[in-house]
């Protein structure tokens, strides 16, 4: 079931541009620092949950929503790509280039939700679905 619908950004309110409200998802820029951190946490969870020998990293964020729910819940549509870094070498993802070898190159489209609780310095990734 798709989370993003044409109706996501319409609310019954006189003040349409008042920012994020509790309980209401709001579209935000894909280059927002919070979105970028959430995407990175999603990729780290993906890397920890798969048996691929290479690390993946985010390549493109196509859509981002944020919702205030005891912290912030980010809902992202993100593309991730296989890098040249092997999981066993523990490289920082920023230093890993994407695979260029056609036999090893792989790009996945993902939907992920990341719950950020800043006062506890906690990130949770309850959902990451990639295909």
- CATH topology label: Nuclear Transport Factor 2, Chain: A
Assigned CATH architecture: Roll
Please give the alpha-carbon distance between the first and last residues: 14 Å
The CATH class designation is: Alpha Beta
The helix tally amounts to 1
Overall 3D geometry? elongated
Count of separate structural domains: 1
Structural class, from helix and strand content?
mainly beta
Q: Can you tell me about this structure?
A:
This protein is mostly beta strands. The protein has a single domain, classed as Roll (Nuclear Transport Factor 2, Chain: A). It has one helix and five strands. It has a five-stranded antiparallel β-sheet with strand order 1-2-3-4-5, covered by helices on one side. The longest helix is centred in the N-terminal third of the chain and has 17 residues.
Quickly list its features.
131 residues, mainly beta, Nuclear Transport Factor 2, Chain: A, 5 strands, 40% strand, disordered N terminus, Cystatin_dom, Cystatin_sf, cysteine-type endopeptidase inhibitor activity
Give the arrangement of secondary structure elements:
Layout lengths: L25 E2 L5 H17 L4 E15 L3 E15 L20 E11 L4 E9 L1
Antiparallel strand pairs: 1-2, 2-3, 3-4, 4-5
How would you briefly describe this protein structure?
The protein has 131 residues and is mostly beta strands. Helix content is 13%, strand content 40%. It has 1 helix and 5 strands.
